[in-house]
Amino acid sequence: MKSPIRLGVLVPSSNTALEPLTQALITSLNGRLSSHYITVHFSRFPVTTISLTPGGLAQFELAPILSAAQLLSHAEVDIIGWSGTSAGWLGFERDIELCRAIQEATGIRTTTSVLALNKALELWGVKKLGLVTPYLDDVQEKIVANYAAIGIQIGEGMERHLRVEKNIEIAGITEEVLDGLVGEVVRGGVDAVTTFCTNLAAAQRAEFWEDKYGIPVFDTVTTVIWDMLRECGLDVGKVEGWGMIFRKG
After folding, report:
1. N or C, fewer C-beta in 10 Å, the chain?
2. Which of 163, 200, 162 is nearest to 16 (CA)?
3. Ordered domains of the chain (ranges, CATH)
């Protein structure tokens, strides 16, 4: 009989992309595992817009996220992952603090999309990163600055963003649009690309872009699941069709 592993995922309330993408990834993995069966369980907290306004920033205060994490603890999940990219503009230390708070409150280990992405960038030795987001100009500038502070260059021609503020609209961005944006940042001479927003329907496209351009594409829906699986001791190399990230454990 297969041993169960339960993944708990924190979701922005207006996100409609990450849950089906996450389920699809896990379904593809379950078909290849002989010893474990993975289930994914979701908990939401209010997020409707992405901006640097006081209201936009207040959405990512600790209390509502911690409340959502505590609900996941009722399901006795093995690990909790924040499937969101707010640390990109708030600062990476915010996710470190969030993980610490969740672990102290629930006793459950925790990771995030952005911390997992940063682990992947280090594993792959990425120094020049292509950044594709749906975000506003000032949000994008914060992300670029935060990566520069840890020695990762996102220079001229290496980033593209769509200036969308309302989160529910982000999931409607088409593959055709994303294809164009990824192609443009690749021409900037990058070592890797990240599609940096968990409401972008991009994870399923990563392997297509990798085959076309020959560099890794790290989607933030995928990064948190990759790290959660690693933390649970699973062989991430059994994941196929979701990008190069699963070639390194």
Report:
1. N
2. 200
3. 3-114+221-247 (3.40.50.12500), 116-219 (3.40.50.1860)
d(CA 214, CA 223): 19
- Over residues 115-162, the pLDDT tens digits come to 999 999 999 999 999 999 999 999 999 999 999 999 999 999 999 999
Residue 107 CB burial class (10 angstroms; 0-12, 13-18, ≥19): exposed
- Which amino acid type is present at position 6? R
Note whether 82 and 110 are within 8 A (CB).
yes
What are 150-199's pLDDT values in tens digits?
Answer: 999 999 999 999 999 999 999 999 999 999 999 999 999 999 999 999 99
Helix (H, G, I), strand (E, B) or coil at 186: helix
- Cβ within 8 Å of residue 141, ≥6 positions away: none
pLDDT of 31-44, one tens digit each?
A: 888 788 999 999 99
SS3 (DSSP) at 172: coil
Name the 3-class secondary structure at 176. Answer: helix
Give the residue among 131, 190, 188 at the shortest CA–CA distance from 162: 131
Of the candidates 15, 21, 23, which has an alpha carbon nearest to the alpha carbon of residue 46?
15
First-residue to last-residue Cα distance in the chain: 25
